[in-house]
Amino acid sequence: MEYLGGVIRNIYILTVLLLSIIYPRECLIQHDPDERPVRPEKDTFSISPSGHFYIHYDTTGNATPDLSDFDENGVPDFVDEVGMIADSAHYVLVEQMGYNEEPYDGEGGYDIYIMSYGAGVYGYTYHEGNGISYIQIDNDYVGFNSMFNLTPIQIMQVSIAHEYSHGIQFGYRYNISGNTYFYEMSAM
Fold first, then answer.
1. How many angstroms separate the CA atoms of 31 and 34, rounded?
2. CA distances, 38 to each of 41, 46, 113, 128, 134 (Å)
3. Which of 183, 27, 181 is nearest to 117 (CA)?
4. How far apart are CA 12 and CA 14, in angstroms?
5. CA gap 99, 169 in Å, rounded
6. Tens digits of per-residue pLDDT, 79-109?
7. In terms of pLDDT, which residue wins out, 7 or 65?
8. Contact 164, 186 (CB under 8 A)
9. What are the structural domain ranges in the chain?
């Protein structure tokens, strides 16, 4: 698997930082510690190439990603791309930059749920308590006004890296009250 590195990694990080500054948003959701949130129910899931991420998605309905499977591996290409990008973000953040992995929830890998959001919603990181989290991303990123002329796939790539950064942040400190601006600006 080819990972982001060198100059490409630096351009990638700079792009994420610029997008965070230009399009500030709050994508951290912290639930009441006394109640565990109900995770979305999806039709099926795929495991990323490294085995670290479980990507949950629907095969019918309005939250369905593009189901094209040009490589005929039985997994939609969009879902394959989500897994590869998540693996790359993990590699850069944990292996290259030295951050701790996100806390383990005891059920497979780190969970990514593909949802249907309107234009302008990149995704969310949901904190369940004790640093455990999962992320939700959009199923197509269509209709986004990107001043950087990014494609929907490129917006998805930036969103996964950013949201996964929050998952790692929750592992360090899961009570973020009053510090959301810092967490948003420091997420990759």
1. 8
2. 9, 20, 12, 9, 11
3. 27
4. 5
5. 9
6. 999 999 999 999 999 999 999 999 888 888 9
7. 65
8. no
9. 6-186
